[in-house]
Amino acid sequence: FLARQCGKFARDALPCVRRAALDACLTLAAGLPKTLEDDDESHTFSREEFLHLLLASLIPIALQLATDASAEVRAAFARRAGALCHVFEKQRLVVADEARALLEDDDTNVRSAACEAIPRIAELSDEDVCEKLTSALTPAAAALASDESPDCRASLAKTSGLLLQALGNDPDAALKAREGEDSVAPLDRALFPLLLILVNDEAPSVACTALRGLADCGAGLARVLAPRHVDALTNSLANLSTSRHWRVRCCAGRVAPALAPACDDEERRRALAEVVAKALDDVVAEVRSNACACACACAAAASRRNDG
């Protein structure tokens, strides 16, 4: 009955009702396993068969909303794509494909939502950790780096940062990503080049989002970056430290403590120190204050490296 009601509301004339039908499908699918566990009544089918039948009746309803005429509904599907992949585990590849298709949607909000669903979808994949994280940015996702909408580019920056953080949290995957066995390391195929593009984006909101993503990697950033990545990123930070946007200058400084442990020689440490030194002389008080905190954090990182 509930599945039929979801189907009915998914065909309603109002987008808000169709969006609510998607939430109902998700909630119902997520609660079914527990509900059937607590159900003592005998059924013609086994619990597993009954669960399969119910989920099979819900998944077409959710998928039809991925191509809904309303951008509001399509964006709702994209935002819930990770959760849908989780509850519809056996059909998650179909859900993931629909979500990826929305990366090329005509609507800005839909493209942004589809992009931000990528990390959760990648997390649920059965692939090798390094492979699923470094290959998560498909050509359609990478194309958002040149999207006319700053919101879409900011979503790509956020997603790229989250993928890099996930790599940094897995030492084995981090090593495999930066070195690799091929001529081009997995990290260099899309993820790191895109981050370099995004930190230098002309829109401050995009650049700041990308820089915050790098800073949020913490100790994992040094784990995942090879010396060539450190040099490229330090050069970008040096350029951004003179940006006309003070928020960009501030965010550039915040990356320094995460990058400091990866600076394994005097030349790299000096180059990073110059980035922080410029911020200490900035005309904006917030940039200077942030630089003080970053300088202390970099000094602490250097002390730990020397002790090691």
Number of helices: 20
Q: How much helix is in the residues?
A: over 70%
**Proportion of residues in β-strands:** under 5%
Kindly state the number of beta strands. 0
Q: What does the radius of gyration come to?
A: 23 Å
Structure summary:
With 308 residues, the chain is mainly alpha-helical. The chain has 20 helices and no strands.
Overview of the molecule:
- The chain has 308 residues and is mainly alpha-helical.
- It is elongated and about 70 Å long.
- The protein starts with a helix and ends with a helix.
- The chain is built from 20 helices and no strands.
- Helix content is 74%, strand content 0%.
- The model has no long low-confidence stretch (mean pLDDT 89).
Features:
308 residues; mainly alpha
SSE layout:
Blueprint: H1 2-10, H2 15-37, H3 47-66, H4 71-79, H5 81-87, H6 92-101, H7 108-116, H8 118-123, H9 129-134, H10 139-142, H11 150-168, H12 171-178, H13 186-189, H14 191-199, H15 204-215, H16 219-224, H17 227-240, H18 246-259, H19 266-280, H20 285-307
